[in-house]
Amino acid sequence: MESAIPQHLRAQCPRQRRVPDDYTPPYPSYVARHAKTVTRVVMAYFGVQFRDDTPAQLATAQTALAHLDADFGAADGPGHWDRARCVDDTGAVNVISIAYWDDPSAFDRWFVLQQQWWSDDARLADGIGYFTELLRPRVESYETLFSANDRTEGIAVLSQHLSGMVKEHAYWGGARDRIPLSQTDDLAPAGVPARVAIGGRVRITPHDNICLIRSGQDWTDTPPEERMMYLDDVEPVLHKGMRYLRDEGVAIGCFANRYMTVLDEQGRATDKSFGMSWWTSLAALERWAESHPTHLAIFGAAMTYLSTLGPAAKLRLYHEVTVARATEQFYEYLNCHPGTGLLHAT
Amino acid sequence: MESAIPQHLRAQCPRQRRVPDDYTPPYPSYVARHAKTVTRVVMAYFGVQFRDDTPAQLATAQTALAHLDADFGAADGPGHWDRARCVDDTGAVNVISIAYWDDPSAFDRWFVLQQQWWSDDARLADGIGYFTELLRPRVESYETLFSANDRTEGIAVLSQHLSGMVKEHAYWGGARDRIPLSQTDDLAPAGVPARVAIGGRVRITPHDNICLIRSGQDWTDTPPEERMMYLDDVEPVLHKGMRYLRDEGVAIGCFANRYMTVLDEQGRATDKSFGMSWWTSLAALERWAESHPTHLAIFGAAMTYLSTLGPAAKLRLYHEVTVARATEQFYEYLNCHPGTGLLHAT
Predict the structure, then answer these.
(1) CA B39 to chain centre
(2) Does the CB of A66 have a partner CB in chain B at under 8 Å?
(3) pLDDT of residue B214
(4) DSSP states along B284-344
(5) Does A164 touch chain B (CB under 8 A)?
(6) Catalytic residue among B8, B319, B337, B344
(7) Phi/psi at A164 (nearest 5 deg)?
(8) Which of A68, A64, A60, A63 is nearest to A98 (CA)?
(9) Could you tell me if B182 and B15 are in contact, meaning their C-beta atoms sit under 8 angstroms apart?
C-alpha cells in the first residue's frame, strides 16, 4: 500500500489526513504517476454548442470539429484528447473535445494556431456557439483515481504509469487527501469571478481555487450480468444526481454540470460516460458529494459494487479533481446561451 | 453559529477541522454544555439478561430491576437514568438501565452500595445474566448532538443547557471534530483487550480509546404524517443497519450493537429507541458510518428528513459518542452468554 501523494511532493509537516495510518481501503484503487519532470499540465475543454435538429447548425458544428481535429494533429498538439457529447437543459447539444498537455510551453505554441481560427470574425457569424474552458494546474493541485490499473483516461494517459494500490480512497475527504497541495493549503476559494465582454465574446475572470471534476465510468468490457447491474442499479442513480447538479447545482456552488457520453472517432456513442462539473471550491464539491442523497446513493452503489466484485469488476471508474488558481484558468464563450459553463458564475 | 467545542476546552494549536470556516450546515443542531466545574462524568450500563418466556427468569429479572431502582434512589445515586430493552441474536432479552453521574466521587460512593448486591454469591445462582459496562470519561473525550434544543437525553440531561446552533455537524468527521480531545490527539486505539475470570464473573480489561456510541430517536411528538414518514421510510433502513452491526459487526471493529427500545416507568415500550454500540476505535465507527450502504442510507434519509422539515420536524434525533482510555473503562459479566457486549472483544 502506498500513499497517493508521490514521495517528491510530500510536505515536511503535512496536515493530518482523515484516516489513521493502519487504514485499509475496502477495494483497490490507483493513481496516475507523472514523470518528476512534469510540473504543470494543461486540461482544455473546447466546446461546440448547437441544435442537431437544425441541419445548417449541425453542418457548421461538423466543420468546426473537423477543423479542431486538424489542429490537434498539428505540431505541439495535445498528448491525448477525447470527445464527448451531452444535451444541456435548453436542449442544445454540446460536443466537447478535451485535450491534455503535460508541457505547457508546447500548449502555448499550439494555442497560437488554434486562436487564429477562434478569434476570426467569421466565428461570430457561424450561427453556433463555441467555448473554451481551460486549466493549467501545477501537479500539486490535482489528483486522479482509478478502480483498475490497466487502462488510463484523461490526464492520466499522459502519466508514466499508474501507482500501486493507494491508501487514501473510499472515504469522504479522500480527494482532498490525495491532492499534494492540501498537505499545506486549505484550498479555500478567494475573490469573485467577473465577466468581460470582448467583441462578441465573453470572458470570465475567475476566482482563486475553483474546482473541476471529471468523473467517468467505462462499461465496455462488462459481461451481460455485470452490464445489467451497472445499467439498472447504478446508472439511474448517477443520472439522477447529474440532473440535480445540472438543474439545481448553482445554489450549492456547482456552476455547471455536464453528464457526457464519450464519442468514438466516427462520432458515435460508446460505452463510456463521465460527469464534469465546475465548483466554487473543493469544499462545495465535498459537501454535495457527502451529504446529498443522490450522491450518497451513487457512492453506496459504487461501494457495494466494487466491494462485491472486487478486482473481478469489469466496470472501470476513474476521476480527476483539480483546484486551480485564478491565473491558471481561462474561459471564453462565443454565441453560447447564458446558462453555459462558467457564465453561470457571474 | 458557535463551535461545538466550548471556549474553555479549545486548544492553542488545534488540528484543522474538516470543514472551512464559512461552512453552514444544512439544518440546525445543538450540543450539551456542562458547567465548567464538571470535568469528568460516569456513564454506566447495568444489564439484566434473561428469557422472558421462562417465568422464573422473568420474575428474577423483575426483582433485580426493582433492586436497582431502589439503589438508584439511594444517596449519591445517578443524576439521570433511563431503561431500555432489546432482544439479542440468541433470542435473550437484555434490559439495560443506563445511569449518568457528573460527579465521579458521588458515583464511587454509590458504587460501593451497588457492589454489595452485585458481588453477593447469590447472584451466581440467580439463573439469569447480569452485566456492567461503565465509562468514566473526561469531558474532553466525548461529544453530544441534538436535532432539537428543547429536550435532552442521556448525559446531556446533566448539562447546564444546550448550546446555540453549532457548526460541526452534518458532514462526515463531524463527531471527531466535536470531541475536544481530537484537537490534539488522533484518538487511535492502543493495546489489546484481555479477559479475566473472577469467580463466576468475567471481567474485560480493555484497550485504550475504545469508542461507545448511543444514538437515539424519539418520535413521541410526531403528527400522523411525519410519524408514517419515520416509521415507513427511516426506521426500516435504520433497523437493517442495526441488525448488520449486531450480526456482522465484529469483522469491522464493532464488538457489540444493541438496537434498544426505551421503556417507561411501568416497563412498557415508548416511542423512543436508540442504538448503542462498542467499537474498537472512533475510526472504525467512522469507516462504517461513512461507507456502509446501510448507514449511508440512514444518513441520507435523515439529511432529507431534516433538510425538508427543518425546525418543524417533530422527530428528535440525538447521540453521544465517547472515546475512553483503558483506565476509564470497567466491564463485568455474570452468567451472560458468550456473545454479550465486550465478551466479543477477546
Answers:
(1) 19
(2) no
(3) 98
(4) HHHHHHHH-HHHHHHHHHHHHHHHHHGGG---EEEEEEEEE-GGGEEEEEES--TTSGGGG
(5) no
(6) B319
(7) -75, -175
(8) A68
(9) yes
| pLDDT at residue B199, as a whole number | 81
Mean pLDDT of B180-187: 92
Cα–Cα distance for residue pair B166/A226, rounded to 1 Å: 44
CA angle B314, B317, B323 (to 5 degrees): 165
Report the 10 Å Cβ neighbour count for A287.
23
Beta strands in A179-288 (DSSP E): 194-198, 201-205, 210-218, 254-263, 269-279
What is the model's pLDDT at position B271?
Answer: 98
Within a 10 A sphere around the Cβ of A175, how many other Cβ atoms?
26
Burial of A221 (0-12, 13-18, 19+ CB in 10 A): middle
**Choice among A306-315, B120-129, B221-230 with the minimum mean pLDDT:** A306-315
Would the CB atoms of B291 and A170 count as touching at under 8 Å?
yes
One-letter amino acid for residue A230 of the chain:
Y
Span B306-345, pLDDT tens digits: 777 877 889 999 999 999 999 999 999 999 999 999 998 8
**Chain segment B7-28, per-residue pLDDT in tens:** 888 887 778 888 988 899 988 9
> B281 touching A, CB under 8 A?
yes
pLDDT at B346: 80
pLDDT per position as a tens digit, B22-56: 899 988 999 999 999 999 999 999 999 999 999 99
| Alpha helices per DSSP H over chain B | 55-73, 104-118, 174-178, 224-229, 235-248, 282-291, 293-309
* Spans of chain A, pLDDT less than 70: none
Quote the CA–CA distance of A46 and A14 in Å, as a whole number: 36
Residue among B18, B173, B303 whose CB faces A293 most closely:
B303
Catalytic-residue membership of A319: yes
Question: Closest approach of chain A CAs to the CA of B290, in angstroms?
Answer: 7
Please provide the average confidence, as pLDDT, over all residues in chain B: 93
Q: Which amino acid, one-letter code, is at A142? A: Y
Three cell numbers, residue A267 = 462520432
CA nearest to A204, candidates A273, A239, A256, A167: A256
Domain ranges, ordered by start, for chain B: 16-346
pLDDT reported for residue B90: 95
Give the cell for residue A98. Answer: 478535451
ipTM summary value? 0.78
CA nearest B301 in A: which residue?
A293
Cα–Cα dist A315/A309, whole Å: 10
Burial of A9 (0-12, 13-18, 19+ CB in 10 A): middle
CB within 8 Å of B188: residues ≥ 6 apart: A20, B209, B281, B283
- Res A295: pLDDT: 87
- Asked if the Cβ–Cβ distance from B304 to A293 is below 8 Å, we say yes
Q: Return the pLDDT at B179.
A: 95
Task: Give the alpha-carbon dihedral of B154, B155, B160, B163, to 10 degrees.
Answer: -80
- Are B173 and A296 within 8 A, CB to CB? no
Please give the model's pTM, rounded to 2 decimal places.
0.87
